[in-house]
Specification:
CATH architecture of the largest domain: 3-Layer(bba) Sandwich
Shape: globular
Structural class: alpha/beta
Family: Belongs to the NADH dehydrogenase family.
Keywords: FAD, Flavoprotein, Oxidoreductase
Number of domains: 2
Protein name: NADH dehydrogenase
Largest sheet: 6 strands, mixed
Radius of gyration: 21 Å
Strand order of the largest sheet: 5-2-1-9-20-19
GO biological process, one term: aerobic electron transport chain
GO molecular function, one term: NAD(P)H dehydrogenase (quinone) activity
Length: 353
């Protein structure tokens, strides 16, 4: 038997399992999925779990079942590329013939003193649960600051406003406007939504230190009961420790087949991979589908046919009744993109489940 090991049961990991199972899986292939959790967490909706508008159970998706798929739970300590094995922290190591790294990302703190110790995270299911508890415990009229005005920060602030109208909420961002990578029309719409819902948006904030109860913007101290960090991501520690070529963001540089060039039996998917696309669940899913096709072609002895990775667009939520989106170069605003996002989530849960 040949063993194909998939590290990570997120969007990329499950998409490649589905892609491999949708085609004819050779009878001598045994797949092993390794994850710390007994289910997939819908990471794009973690902001709702943190805000208290979605339950833990709503964001779980069961792993697939198949005779050629085994699921192993546990924490990964490291990956031995030369020895072709995954070293586990408290269980037996796993030997592989093929390896797929789809471990996702963690927060990137940019060397800011106190950021890791004194901010809350929504990058893992466990940390999001803790963030919910911290936000839930803030007393009325307390101050919550969200550092980072990208998609995650915007959705977090909007959802928290719906959940806790009694709180003072602010987004702190180093750029001139929230959603700075999006068209100005879209950004302006979101800014107006925040103004009408009493969410403060502060631009050109350069955080250089964070302490318990306070954020330092140069000589200014911004008081904070809870500070949520959404100001950057990076690959998880196991990937950071790999001695392979990486881009400036720490993501692994791959060949055209999404393989590590020196180790063609190893594929990297999603947030750990250096791609011409911004990290997202959609990008991970699209790349995973392509990698599944590549693997099947190579198993058949064919030359893989590659197609450009294309995304359908970006959708964001402003609470449960408003949203925004970018379809190609066209901005869509208001109720429609929010309904579209709800529909995409429903279809995703139905497909993955």
């Amino acid at each position: 038997m040949r063993k194909l090991v998939i590290l990570g049961g997120g969007y990329g990991g499950l998409a490649i399992i589905q892609g491999l199972l949708d085609d004819h899986l050779p009878e001598d292939i045994q797949m092993v999925l390794v994850d710390r959790m007994p289910f997939q967490g819908l990471k794009t909706e973690y902001y709702a779990l943190a805000a208290g508008t979605a339950t833990d159970l709503e964001l779980r998706v069961s792993f697939p079942k198949h005779p050629q798929l085994t699921i192993k739970y546990g924490e990964i300590a490291s990956i031995d590329l030369e020895g072709k094995q995954v070293l586990m922290e408290q269980s037996d190591d796993i030997i592989y013939d093929y390896l797929i790294i789809a471990l996702g990302c963690t927060d990137r703190y940019h060397g800011i003193e106190g950021a890791e110790q004194f901010t809350s995270s929504i990058q893992s299911f466990s940390n999001t649960r803790k963030t919910y508890q911290q936000l839930n415990d803030v007393k009325p009229y307390g101050q919550v600051n969200i550092i980072g005005g990208g998609l995650s920060g915007v959705e977090m602030a909007a959802e928290l406003r719906e959940s806790r109208p009694d709180l003072n909420i602010a987004i702190l961002d180093r750029h001139s406007r929230v959603l700075s990578s999006f068209p100005s029309k879209l950004s302006l719409y979101v800014e107006h939504w925040f103004q009408s819902h009493d969410v403060d948006t502060r631009s050109h904030v350069s955080v250089d230190r964070i302490e318990a109860g306070g954020i330092y913007n140069g000589s200014e101290i911004i008081l904070s009961d809870v500070t949520v960090w959404t100001a950057g991501i990076q690959p998880v520690r196991v990937v950071q420790d790999l001695q392979v070529a990486k881009d400036p963001g720490g993501r692994i540089i791959l060949n055209s087949y999404s393989q590590i060039a020196e180790h063609p039996e190893v594929y990297v998917i999603g947030d750990c991979a250096s791609l011409p696309l911004a990290p997202s669940a959609q990008a991970a899913g699209a790349q995973a589908e392509q990698v599944a096709e590549v693997i099947h072609s190579l198993w058949r002895g064919d030359t893989p046919k590659l197609h450009p990775l294309r995304l359908k667009g970006t959708l964001g939520a402003l609470g449960k009744k408003a949203g925004f989106g970018l379809m190609g170069k066209k901005a869509v605003l208001g109720r429609v993109p929010r309904l579209l996002k709800s529909g995409v989530l429903w279809m995703s849960k139905r497909h993955l489940g």
